[in-house]
Amino acid sequence: MSKIKKKSESNNYEEKNNINDIRINTSLQESLKKLIELMNQTRNEEDSKDEIKTGFGKLSLKRGELNIIASKSDYLTTAFELSMIYQISIKEKNKIGLFIPGNYNNVVITERLISMISRISGSKIRSGFLNKEELKKFEHAAHDLYKAPIHILNDSNISFERLENNITEYVKEHNIRIAFIEGFDFIEDLVDSKETDYRQNLFLLLYNLKQLAEKLQITIIVGMEFPKNENKEINSFPSIHDFKKYMIIPELADRIFFIHINGYVIGEINQKATLMVTERNGISAPCYDLKFINNIDLFLNDED
What we know:
The protein is α/β, with parallel strands linked by helices. 47% of the residues lie in helices and 20% in strands.
């Protein structure tokens, strides 16, 4: 009888200890789980900020928006687009994707970004004749660019469906917050459009981009050049009316960033420029005074 009792007591003791072991393990697991949840929450809160500063005045980018960069020069449109990438991703480390449907060489993009960072002109970089100080600046710029969370996909004349899939994939894999589209006019759906169908196809593409921005909760930015207008001076300030027969663009875009050089001065490296933001409802935000450093194709705040 005593043996049975002792055995029973022993079993109770073991069971008690096993229960305690389970409780200890469960407590550690729960603590670890809570710690991981807290880390994820902190990271998600950082990633889920509704706005990202552009570095141009108080201008910020918002989730779910479709924004258009427009000027009377395709060259200036690209320069401002890359200047935004410089501010947002290289300086502030925000994750962005640059999607290039047009025939734009990645090496050229890389050269222009390194030129912006190093403050060395692209022509001098291409020449290869850099002094010791410039070479050091180039190496630092290359390092900064290598570390920047910029993801580039160059796919000439892709279909819009494939572009959508690429943007969605980059959001999932790289957690990009902003998608820049350089060479929008080269998307297969527009290139193959008949003249009578172009406006309708343009509407569908922009409408679907807006829907994609809302679905993925990112900002999509498209660079565009105005339709050619022989009767208007290239130096006049751009406006919504310059879209002419493509007025669907300002109707679909949440905001348009008009970029303009205020009278090009020959021989001046720093050119005065203006950024004007217009919202879909037609309300214009305050203009931002910028400067354009033309030997490195960089837009900055006028006081920088």
